[in-house]
User: Fold this.
Amino acid sequence: MVQHNENFERFPREYAQLTSDQKAALAWRSIIRMLPQGLRRLHANNSIRVLRQALVAQLFMAGRAEITTLERAANATRPSFDGYWSTSSDRPAVDRAANDMCKCLVGNDGAGFGPPSMVIASTGISNLVPESHFILDDIRQIRASAADAWQKAPTELPEILPLTPEHTSGLVPEQEGRHLHPFWNKWYQSVIAGTAPNWSLINRIAQIDDAAWEEGAATLDKAIDDAVDDLSIAMTENGETVEINPETGKLRLVPTADLPEEMGIYVRRKMLKAIAVFEQPLPQSYRALTPDLAMLQCAVEDAQNLPVELYDACSSALLRLALRAEQGECPPVDGDPLLADYRNRLRDAGADILGSNAEARRVLERRQAITDNDELIKGCDTINEVVATVAPLLEGRLAETLPQDAAIATDPNSDPAERRSASFRLSGRLLRILRFTAAIAIGAGLTFRALTKGAELLEAMQFLAGNPIVKDAQRIIYEMLNLR
Assistant:
């Protein structure tokens, strides 16, 4: 008790020296310190409530309070009534929430109910750890910019949350014999590792309907899966969709944002002129460009007015040109008039596409937002098997480019920039193909038959939707997108 009183006396003085951001960090660290022990002690569906409140707290304390419930919570926070906690700040709602959290942990019954404190105060966890000296250690670490030094006595954090079937069977209605969704431990591990979460996913899961949170078990698991699936589609939006060709029953690419017809003709003409820079047959010094010129020719003929496809063809040809010159497969570009002309024409075509199509620019931004990783390389066998399995269902540009992109995306020796583009295209298209086949499997077959001539491929689509390898491929793509 003496130690507790000393800590309570020291805490306001040290806390007052923190900035608003540091107070937010302290409150968030306190939540995570309490979470594993709190989950072990709670009953009924309070575990689910605490996990949800932890997500809300993370969003709030990170300054990402973008959802309505968080805005209401921020507006409802009131000025502190305790002189120890008064502070002038441009972020009073954050300060108040941090105050509430920390007052709970030092045993002050006057704590309010800002979003972070709800995690502990409203679920009765605040009595679990009466000692608060670790908060003073955290203050010192945060002031020293060592904000990720979680593991230290006496409050060492476990590697995983206590969410096994044995634990959850007595905590969550209808959860008996089931793990909670793997999202939770992945999220928790990212927190204690200090890695940035996918904020869009945290937001979507925090916004799942209250009824699903109350029911828990399979209902909540499905809602989390749906949130992951919907976000994966949004993250890989490539200015196109996958649809049935009613004349063949196969799947094809359809642009969602065409280039204007005149611009499409103009761009393709520039690409053809780039190809025509070289005489045929190619002289020996340029023969390494043969596959690149063939790729450009196919894009001109097959990509129609798909702006991103045309841009990617130009960009890929330029990347390959630079690599070939670097590796001595062709002359240095700047010293060769024909190669310089070829390069400049492709650059102009790419610039025209980006200048005339806002969606193409947004696609490039979405690609850059995905952190480079080797998930597709590690999962190459699964990815290539799924691509080979879906190949008979595809036609046109989709059938041509999907295996090519898979080969580049799963090759550790491919150029990183080209692998990034190929991984983005491959992931988005596979996700859309698999989503379509899943819809067929759950009852869209009659519609499919009506749209196609004989629907010879319906059985193949239904088989694919039920194949376990599909789930494995989706998991790999989700991990690539930092959604697992």
